[in-house]
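quick one before i forget lol
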Amino acid sequence: MVFSDDREWAGHLRALVRGGLERGEQVQYFADATDPERVLRTLTDAGIDAVAAVSRGQLSVSTAARTYLAGDRFDLDAVIDGWHTAAQSSSALGYRGLRVIGEMSWGARDIEGADRLLEYELRIHQEVFELLPLTGWCFYDRRLLPEDYVNVLVGAHLTRRGNPVGGSALRVAPLTDRPGLLMSGSAGYDTRGIVAAAAAAVRGASTERVELDLAELRHLDAASLVTLADAAAGRPAGTPLRVRQAPPSLARLLELFPELGSVVEVVDR
């Protein structure tokens, strides 16, 4: 969810919370720039009995600082494990699913681990959403976040709502039908951070088979190529990275360094 003013924020908030409550889901809101009391007032003003929902345990409004940013750090793996625990707890209480909403303004602050936020967004599709009765919505406030930052992170989401966002030179998103990533656009000097996040997601993927689809990639410079090759080499032994529509530069790299053939499997070259 991308928004530019309080009216848009309130509209998204009301729709998502009301929808979750009506569907019999447990709803958790994690504020960052917004006072939790304001969240509850906004829901109440819209005719949603937020107080009753909180009392019966179906709705909770907390802050990122008190939950997944405890200790002023973002631990990607701990947060992913936490979603599994939270979803199991919600199911045990009889809810149809868990719906979480988080304000993402903290990602642009100097918080330890915040540089891994893109890697997190790329991994949770396969490691959380495909496995659990859980839906998550990230709230991006354009007033608090740099435009380029928002564009890159929003591009990693399979579902996007709110104001249209501009594109970035390189977009990385999860594949929808198999574990892996789709890279589109151009990878060069200005996209080093995006490539590094994609490489980290490849290296840290929990599934045995991971595919990197480069069919929509127009350019891949040498440094980015090496970063991705290093990620393939860093995967568990015997689980090569499948690369679809590999660029000629990768083919040349495999010819120069045949040992990479054990960690990179090229398909549809």
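fyi Strands lie at 2-3, 26-31, 59-63, 98-103, 134-141, 170-174, 180-187, 210-220, 241-244, 264-267.
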